[in-house]
Amino acid sequence: MYGALNRLEERGIVEVQSSKPMRYRALPPGTALEKLKDNFISESEDALALLKEIYQTQKIGAREEAVWTISGVKNVSDRIIEMIRGAQTDIIFAASYPSFHEIAKTYPIFENIKGEIINKIEEGVTVRVTGSRSEGLEEITKNIPGAQIRAFPSDKSMASGGLLITDGNEALITIVSKNVNTSICDLMAIYTSGDGAVSIFKHFVETEWDASVSV
Questions:
Q1: Counting runs of H as helices and runs of E as strands, what totals does the chain give?
Q2: Which of 24, 90, 135, 196 lies deepest, with the highest CB count within 10 Å?
Q3: Which residues contact 66 (CB under 8 A, 6 or more apart)?
């Protein structure tokens, strides 16, 4: 019993009177709960700071050209949003967002991506989108004011997927597929932040951009 009381004292939710025998008094429930919440938040913040330090150290030390596969609409959407939120200067979609625009009709979660793009434009980040006219670029122009939209000069494009590149240091290659049984679209992606791979994809996207015409 005394061991349990000592632990409660360490957590600050009982008071101890130095007497013989020792006397313990519980704090009011509201006060005790606030102390527990404050302790939890403080410990969580300390843990997060340490984890961030470890994570950044490993990220800086990881020089290999790592490539990651991401499966499922929710997981791909989360990574896209993470990339967009982290962008500081430039976001390029090559035939990607038009495909997402279509898949959003089935999975409303992709509507969140549009909002994130608009937020970045308001922050001054350059957003460029390329695709084919058949993919509804005119509608995207209306929905995302401020984005630079260009169309391929022909209908030959990556309509089944595309590329997203942010700040020239992260790349996401998406593949849109249909379930043969349900005809519902699904999504997978390949992600990399390796300098070599990203530079190749960026060169490809910039070439497509230069060959496209304004909408």
A1: 7, 10
A2: 135
A3: 192, 193, 194
Q: Which of 41, 60, 79 is the last residue of a domain?
A: 60
Q: Do the beta carbons of residue 45 and residue 38 sit within 8 Å? A: no
DSSP-assigned letter for residue 180: T
Give, to the nearest 10 degrees, the angle between helix 96-103 and helix 111-122.
140
Nearest to 140, CA basis, from 155, 129, 153: 129
The candidate with the shortest Cα–Cα distance to 152, out of 202, 198, 207, 113, is 207
- What's 78's domain CATH number? 3.30.870.10
Round to whole Å and give the CA distance between 117 and 107.
18
Q: What is the pLDDT of residue 205?
A: 86
Last residue of a domain, one of 16, 34, 60: 60
Number of domains observed in the structure of the chain: 2
Examine the domain organization and report whether 10 and 87 are in the same domain.
Answer: no
Span 110-168, pLDDT tens digits: 778 888 999 999 999 999 988 876 556 777 777 888 999 888 776 554 445 688 999 99
